[in-house]
Amino acid sequence: MHGYWLEFSQVALAHCLAVISPGPDFAIVVKQSVTHGRRIAIWTSIGVGSAIFFHIAYSLLGLGLLIRSSPFWFNSVRYAGAAYLGWLGWQALRAEPRNFSPVVKERAIQAPAAARAFATGFLTNALNPKATLFFVSLFVLLVSPGTPQIIRAAYGVWMALGTMAWFSLVAVLFTRPEVQRRFQRQAHWIDRVLGLVLLGFALALLFTSGGN
Question: In terms of pLDDT, which residue wins out, 95 or 1?
Answer without folding.
Answer: 95
